[in-house]
Design a protein that fits this description.
Layout: H1 2-13, H2 19-26, H3 33-48, E1 51-61, H4 90-102, E2 107-112, H5 119-135, E3 140-144, H6 152-158, E4 163-165, H7 175-178, H8 184-196, E5 200-202, E6 205-207, H9 213-226, E7 230-235, H10 252-265, E8 270-273, H11 277-281, H12 285-288, E9 294-296, H13 308-317, E10 321-322, E11 359-360, E12 366-367
Parallel strand pairs: 1-2, 1-9, 1-10, 2-3, 3-4, 4-5, 6-7, 7-8, 8-9
Antiparallel strand pairs: 11-12
Helix pairs in contact: 1-3, 2-9, 2-10, 3-10, 4-5, 9-10
The site of iron/sulfur cluster has 15 residues, from β11.
Family: Belongs to the radical SAM superfamily. Biotin synthase family.
Keywords: 2Fe-2S, 4Fe-4S, Biotin biosynthesis, Iron, Iron-sulfur, Metal-binding, S-adenosyl-L-methionine, Transferase
Biased composition (Low complexity): 376-385
């Protein structure tokens, strides 16, 4: 396909795609899907080899949020039966983080529900970052605490945070349909504050909320302009008890096309598969590793992921390798500051971050609400093959272990 040859060439040279090209990727047929994955996989391997970066979520404070993000199980008025608890103590958070690091993660994402932190909250998180860094040399720490006020990003940086996640989630034109208690501009402002403070910016999206292809291209192009180092791609986990509970719009094929589009638009950026990986990609998860170079290990914020051991086996079986703590994630031109690769890069013309992002997408951080997942409680109860876009509530399991419980975390 001429289009794919062109996109590979552009990806290897970090040349920007046109909107028409990005839309064309989303519009490819299932017959062309493996060709699309192979093409985007060439770009992924050029910049990231066969490495997979593992990230580990620690939900510092769960539920009871005053904001109304429709996708979030922690939102105002949510009746989802999620864990609800206030701030973990530094030693509790450090213990949870240690489990993820022992499982192979190199980045810990500290997430808290809420509109944004108070200065006292920032002090509290600073103590947690210190505790985690004292116990785990070389660990990358990303904070995801919502909207930041002036000076807070700088204080987190001084406390040792390497990165800050805040997702754009969806296009500017549809943002008001998803959330009314804050604006798209508020989110952009926080990503810019993190960037300006010297934190590695992480910002991504949630797919599957009823958006159009144009919306997806809009948000990915907006991310490109913000130039985050990592872009988490969440696939909505339609939690019962939230306004988007009926939005089962995604198929594994659609998820792969979205990841391929993000890879082509942001070729040299850490693209992370976040919440909804197990729910929507299901048995196609290994193919997605040819597109994304980063995933979350184990559970999400409010939902369970597949067993951490299964994540590691999948990576090995697909012919990939877990990225080591001594390996720099980003390509040299982006990782000028070393470490997790930072914002000093020239950028790809696009920035897209991944990571946790928002507090809620159905999944990872980025959002405060992670998605649910399978793995444990979520085993399939039917032997019938799923139909395109069919509701798979059997694959959504509310998190009942790890942070905020007495049970061991999944890592
Ligand atoms: S995404 Fe974050 S701000 Fe929005 S409702 Fe969930 S916890 Fe609150």
């Amino acid at each position: 396909m001429d289009l794919l040859n062109t996109l590979v060439d552009k990806g290897l040279r970090r040349e920007p795609l046109s909107r028409a090209e990005a839309l064309a990727v989303l519009g490819t047929s299932d017959d062309d899907l493996l060709d699309v994955v192979a093409a985007a996989g060439k770009v992924r391997r050029h910049w990231f080899g066969r490495r997979v970066k593992l990230n580990y979520l620690v939900n510092l404070k769960s539920g009871l949020c005053p904001e109304d993000c429709s996708y979030c199980s922690q939102r105002l008025g949510s009746t989802a039966g999620i864990l609800k608890y206030t701030w973990l103590k530094p030693d509790e958070a450090s213990k949870a983080a240690a489990a993820g690091l022992a499982g192979g993660a190199k980045r810990v994402c500290l997430v808290a529900s809420g509109r944004g932190p108070t200065d006292r909250d920032v002090d509290r998180v600073a103590g947690t970052i210190k505790a985690i860094k004292e116990e785990n040399e070389g660990v990358e720490v990303c904070a995801c605490l919502g909207l930041l006020s002036d000076g807070q990003a700088e204080r987190l940086r001084e406390a040792g945070a390497d990165a800050y996640n805040h997702n754009l989630n969806t296009s500017e034109s549809t943002y008001g349909e998803i959330t009314t208690t804050h604006t798209y501009a508020d989110r952009v402002d926080t990503v810019q504050k993190a960037h300006a403070a010297g934190l590695s910016a992480c910002s991504g999206l949630i797919a599957g909320m009823g958006e159009t292809d144009e919306d997806l291209v809009d948000v990915v192009f907006s991310l490109r302009e913000l130039d985050p180092d990592s872009v988490p791609v969440n696939f909505l986990i339609p939690f019962e008890g939230t306004p988007l509970a009926k939005e089962w719009n995604l198929t594994p094929q659609r998820c792969l096309r979205i990841l391929a589009m993000v890879r082509f638009v942001c070729p040299d950026v850490e693209v992370r598969i976040a919440g909804g990986r197990e729910v929507h990609l299901r048995t196609m998860q290994p193919l997605a590793l040819h597109l994304a170079n980063s995933i979350f290990l184990g559970d999400y914020l409010t939902s369970e992921g597949q067993a951490g051991k299964a994540d590691l086996e999948m990576i090995a079986d697909a012919g990939f390798e877990v990225e080591g703590a001594d390996q720099v994630t980003l390509p040299e031109h982006r990782a000028a500051g070393g470490g997790c690769g930072s914002h000093e890069s020239a950028g790809c013309g696009a920035h897209e971050g991944g990571g946790c992002g928002s507090h809620d997408s159905g999944g990872g951080c980025g959002s405060h609400e992670g998605g649910g997942v399978c793995g444990s409680a979520a085993t399939t109860s039917s032997t019938a093959a799923p139909q395109a876009g069919e509701a798979r509530t059997d694959l959504v399991a509310v998190r009942r272990r790890g942070a905020g419980t007495d049970l061991a975390p999944n890592a």
